[in-house]
Structure formats: structure tokens, C-alpha cells
Amino acid sequence: MSFIVPEKFRIKSGPLASNESYGNNGAFWVKTKKCVFTVIASDQMGWEHVSVSLPTRCPTWEEMCFIKSLFWGEDDCVIQYHPPKSDYVNNHPFCLHLWKPTEQTLPTPPSFMVGKAGAA
Questions:
Q1: To pair with 101 at 20 to 30 A between CA atoms, which of 1, 48, 58, 82?
Q2: Domain DUF7694 spans what residues (predicted)?
Q3: Cβ(54)–Cβ(62) under 8 Å?
Q4: Cα dist. 46→42, 90, 102, 105, 109 in Å?
């Protein structure tokens, strides 16, 4: 599966407005029972990208997994970078990013280096 935006959450009016003609680029309010995420998506310059923010805290791991599942398939590998401090950009204190290059496959470590499969 490739990058697909969830159209039902697209912001269609106001300063963040876009429509389907923008393709996989635009802003989205993803509403759940607990909160509303502001998500900005793009697929430009060889990258698929979403930024995910909340007004008063950073998204949790589980929440980022949920957002990932809305924009990519379960077999897609996306990453969250931790760049050198000299390259930090922080325009929002509670925003995290997911990235996937479009022209190469991301390397991943063997699963045994992460932990024992199936262990809780």
C-alpha cells in the first residue's frame, strides 16, 4: 500500500483548507473519542510525511501508530527521525513527524535485535 490521506478528516475551510485536488497534501483534523489531532500531510521531493500535533501534549506511541495506520498500510515502514541537535527545528512543542522515502526502501534491523518476537 502506498501513502493515502483519509479524505473524511481533510480540513476544507479556513486557513488550512484544501480539497481532493491537492492529492496527498493538506491538513486534517483526526477526531477520536479522546482528542483531535492536527495532521499535516505531504508527498513531495521524494518523501511522504505527516506531522501530528495536539494542543497540550505530544502524541503517544499508540496514537502515532493509529495515525500511521490512517496514512500508510500495515506493511509500510515509516520512521521518526532524531537528527543532530544542530539540525533541530521545533515550530510546535507538541508535534511529532513520520517520514517515508518514496524512492528507496528503508533499512530495518533484524527483529531479534529489537527483542524476542511474541514476548509481552
A1: 58
A2: 39-103
A3: no
A4: 10, 22, 5, 12, 23
Q: What is the DSSP letter of 117?
A: T
- Tell me the mean pLDDT in the region 46-56: 97
Across 39-60, average pLDDT: 97
Q: β-pairing, 36-44 with 47-53?
A: antiparallel
Calpha distance 38→54 (Å, rounded) = 6
More confident residue, 17 or 112: 17
Which residue type sits at 117? Answer: A
| Contacts of the segment 38-45: beta carbons below 8 A, 24+ positions apart | 39/9, 39/67, 39/71, 40/16, 41/3, 41/5, 41/71, 43/3, 43/102
Give the residue among 93, 88, 26 at the shortest CA–CA distance from 59: 93
CB burial of residue 48 (10 Å; 0-12, 13-18, 19+): buried
**Entry pTM:** 0.90
